[in-house]
Prior knowledge:
- The chain is of the alpha/beta class.
- The protein is built from 18 helices and 13 strands.
Amino acid sequence: MKFFINEPQNVVNEAIEGILTDPKLTKLDNFPEVRVVLRKEIDANKVSVISGGGSGHEPAHAGFVGEGMLTAAVCGDIFASPSVDAVLSAIVATTGDQGCLLVIKNYTGDRLNFGLAAEQAREMGYKVETVIVGDDIALGEEVEQRGLAGTLFVHKVAGYLAEAGKDLEEVAAMAQKVASQTWSIGLSLEEGKKFEYPEASRLEDSEAELGLGIHGEPGVEKISMQNADVLVEKMLKKLKQFLPDEKQEYALLINNLGSVTPLEMSILLNSISKSELSKHIKLLVGPAQLMTSLNMNGVSISVLQLDDEITEALTAKAQPAAWMIRTYAEKSSVKSPELPKTLPYKASSNNEVSKAISTITTMLIESKDELNAIDEKVGDGDAGSTFATGAKKLQEVLDQLPLADYSELLITIGRILARETGGSSGVLLSILFTRAGNAYKESQHLGKSLLEGLDKMKEFGGAEEGQRTMIDALQPAFEALAEDKSLAEVASAARNGADKTKEITQTKFGRSSYLSKNSLEGIPDPGAEAAARVFEELA
């Protein structure tokens, strides 16, 4: 495909710069390392409402920053959660005595990064509440429900209450109420095409995909291509299974996932108007591009059960650029808050450790494209890039690391990964290394410390061995290290664990839980594959 871009690696930064021609918006001055879009004028006596996530969903999230909606938006790379530091910066830059609410879409990376930032902010003395939105009904209630465009209902209601001067407890409670009675379903005719590493379409001309998310992952099922009325009927049939009572009054949000023409969107609205549900729709948002998936040729429908309070909040005036025509203005920035240092310890030397880190990081950088290719088949295609980013940063600061002290080194690696590596993998590994570093102070045993770090990662991440994650390679490898086995035996254990993930086709955890058996069979988990390669390289 052809795109209106300059350099693929700069699309997010340049898009944000374009948004900042809005005279009411600004950014933190350490942009683009931290991408936070916020209001120029913030009332410190009111609750701040912060949301965000990966880019590629525009106008969400920065397009909804403004009076009556978000106070700030935190923007990650394409389909990748923003870093913990970026979220923490947004909290510190916008939050006064009344505290702040974080609105989080239910994806592992967002939960981890926003959740860890919230904990750090609380330690700094800030009042922070979180609301996790999982409005996607495609997968049923037995697995984690993803956050889709229904999240915008939460932004609007929370923003209205915050603007009205309500306290944090009331804002958070109403936001949670809205999240709990919002339901969404998506359908696509073609996947969105990435600016880099585009993959071939998995859909034939005769197929459509029902029940998909916003990160390019496969839908729950492929269905035959039909006319608009039939496709809408199938979406509403799924949706109505979850509505408590069709006789309730609802707000309807019709979201263009990227490249559906306005003409087609109006046809889809007309199809909805023919349904039984339409008799109970009181408010309409869209049809419009609201929370997209790059240029996906698809649509999502979201329904929110109304009451008088929610109706008042939804219909109140708001200023975000996504909802209004605005004046062109010069860009500006404000000073970013200073965060704790990434490298807290004095550098020390150890040739053996230095060589090991150089060997591992070089391998991860060289494996980027291959690991991305594996991840394209079972995820969003950025696993290799994620590991390579962390590896490059470790190489850059290698001579500044406390190589002679395992405890300090593990803790430092944890901090680097949390701040430099996107997605859930970076935060999970940061938790692992941080806990291992603290455990090493007591045990003075690297294998046992790493195993303890893995237990903490599992506690926060929720996955266990056998659920098709990097844990399937790390668990047996760390157990072998804890038993003082040779590196060759450790590498063999990691490889066996990674290879077993090719056979795991049913799981209730992570992105794999969204995919069919045919999509997973014979393909290793990219995180487990990367872990196995690390130990093989060391051996």
